[in-house]
Amino acid sequence: MRSNNHIGLLALASFFAACGSAPAFAQSAADLLNDPKNTQSVLTYGMGYKAQRHSALKQINRGNVKNLVAAWAYSMTDQTGLEAQPLVHDGIIYITNHNRTAAVDGVTGKEIWRNNLDYAPELLRIVCCGIVNRGSALFNGKLIRTTLDNRILAMDAKTGKEVWSAKSDADYTKGYSMTVAPLVANGVVITGVAGAEFGIRGFLEGYDAETGKFLWRRYTIPAKGEKGSETWPGDSAETGGGSTWVTGSYDPDLDLVFWGIGNPAPWNPRGRKGDNLYTNSIIAVKPKTGEVAWVTQASPEDPYDHDGVNSLVQAEIKTGGETRKVVMQAHRNGFLYVLDRATGKPIAVNPFVEVNWASGWDYAKGRPIWTDVTIKAQAGEKVNVFPSNYGGTNWFPMSYDPSANLLFINTNAMGMEYQAPEPVKVVAGQPAFGVTTKPIAPEFRGHLKAVDPMTGKAKWSVPFKHINTAGTMNTAGGLVFTGQLSGEFMALDAANGKLLWQFQTPSGIISQPITWEKNGVQYVTVGSGIGGVYAMRVAGPSLGNVPTGSTLWTFKLHGK
Fold first, then answer.
1. Are 134 and 86 in contact (CB under 8 A)?
2. pTM here?
3. 303: confidence class by pLDDT, cuts 50, 70, 90
4. What confidence tier does 541 reach under pLDDT thresholds 50, 70, 90?
5. Which of 3-12, 142-151, 338-347 has the lowest mean pLDDT?
């Protein structure tokens, strides 16, 4: 890591002196637990361990959001896309992309420090699934992030200087890459990997948050003789998969981390019969040891790349006369899963978009009910499938309003023409698909929906010509914030989906908005910078003139 501190230590000291006393960079376990209640900070990915992306702030509300103006913009000097969720502590914003980590004054937008990463030239040519980074973690004065060549770095949050560095033994030349935002749970830094299309053997890893010491690895593809290996007949498990590239959530009372597991490799299922555990599953693990407490598989023997990594949101929901502690996932396969957090038992499984590969969920057998579409697809016939391999939604996180009991989800209305002709061989480090696909694109490719988690039905739905691949955030001010690939940053009325305000940023938005306050002023921060798989491979006519280039934007009410 090459450090390029924008201001020296003397200037940094003067900066803090001008702002008052130097901030205490001590994000303890208690601070992380209190993250959603402390509206001055955003210390965790998901704006709290429950990953609800909900804020109690309401200075900016449906009545005055029309007066929202840009306070500043900060350039990330990058053309590859800005997906990361920023973090905030004591008015300082921390932001990452694939090769830069920066600390920025949240009020003025002035850079405090930055670190740049140097990668081997060949890495950017072979890295799986997008040259991006999705964010960082804060813990006890350290900012912690992952890198495309599978390192975990901890930096002093005040200065950007390296505190510790750990290297996973995953080989990027074999398709492994770390784009995930780490999760610190019970003193352990938990990370995952991308690369299922390259036939990796997916895993989660745990590192000591104070020292970087490696603690454990939990593979998502079982070895011969291990539990679950019987679901990979013959040597089919050697084709791999099971990536873990989107951050999970943590229940400190149960001491369980919930994480989504990706698709098996290759997409073509004809050479890997069986359920293929633990791909396309939600798993619960103990953060200290990596021990698996429970597994719920959403799509056994997935032929469609319905990658199961999507965000996992926790809530307390009233159903059947009692309040249940649940974890929820809007899966790429088009079903919304509401699971008991302690056991993983499904409470409700319902479609939230058009679905034809399965007709529902068999609660007795604990698996989807395949339709003729999937039966024919498994046999190699050409079929039309909904949702497409891009999913009913994708990795970009949904948010949850606990007062209204609604999920706000950017969804996909596209299907695909699909065929898996013959089994294909997977070669480590090379992408293997083995299927032919052609998108079925309706006029409105995407919708922002307010969804009842227990039914999957939308209270309201706003159509778009393209899919929005940004995360959503909601506030007690009655607002939902998100962005479009064409660059508009938007605020909508959470009650009815009415567009109340928008601002044209310089590029497409694929990041995750946050909100926070400083000295009694509420701010909203989001990244602009088009990139990601959809923009690269699907896009569409409405995105042809969207420029690249990543910037971080912060907004406040006019006059504040």
1. no
2. 0.94
3. very high
4. low
5. 3-12
Q: How far apart are CA 460 and CA 477, in angstroms?
A: 18
d(CA 531, CA 79): 8
305 is catalytic: yes
Tokens standing for residue 212: 């970087």
Residues contacting residue 234 through CB under 8 Å, at least 6 positions apart: none
Nearest partner of 81 among 444, 456, 546, judged by Cα: 546
Which residue is catalytic, options 35, 251, 302, 305? 305
How many Cα atoms are found within 13 Å in the side-chain-facing hemisphere of 183? 34
Distance CA 63, CA 211 (A): 48
Over the Cα atoms of the chain, what is R_g? Answer: 22
- The DSSP line for 357-376 is SEEEEETTTTEEEE-HHHHH
**CATH for 2-430+439-557?**
2.140.10.10
One-letter amino acid at 350 equals N
How far, in Å, CA of 77 to CA of 65, rounded?
30
AA letter at 470: A
Q: Retrieve residue 108's tokens.
A: 């003025």
Between CA 79 and CA 71 the distance in angstroms is 23
Give the separation between CA 450 and CA 498, rounded to whole angstroms.
12
Residue 257 vs residues 236, 283, 298, 354: alpha-carbon distances, Å: 28, 8, 18, 30
Say if CB 510 and CB 396 are below 8 A apart: yes
Show the beta-strand stretches assigned E in 177-233.
183-185, 188-192, 203-208, 214-219
Reported residue count of the chain is 560
Q: Specify which residues 384 forms β-bridges with.
A: 417
Q: Are 333 and 387 spatial neighbours (Cβ–Cβ below 8 Å)? A: yes
pLDDT at 26 > cutoff 70? no
Q: Which of 76, 148, 147, 96 is nearest to 529 (CA)?
A: 76
Looking at residue 64, its amino acid is: N
Task: Look at residues 297, 280, 293 and name the one whose alpha carbon lies nearest to residue 250.
Answer: 293
Tell the residue number behind the tokens 């991308």, with chain if given. 194
Virtual torsion, Cα 73, 74, 76, 78, nearest 10 deg: 40
What is the average pLDDT across 299-317? 97
Q: Are 350 and 336 in contact (CB under 8 A)?
A: yes
DSSP β-bridge partners for residue 370:
358
- What is the H or E stretch that residue 295 is in? strand 292-297
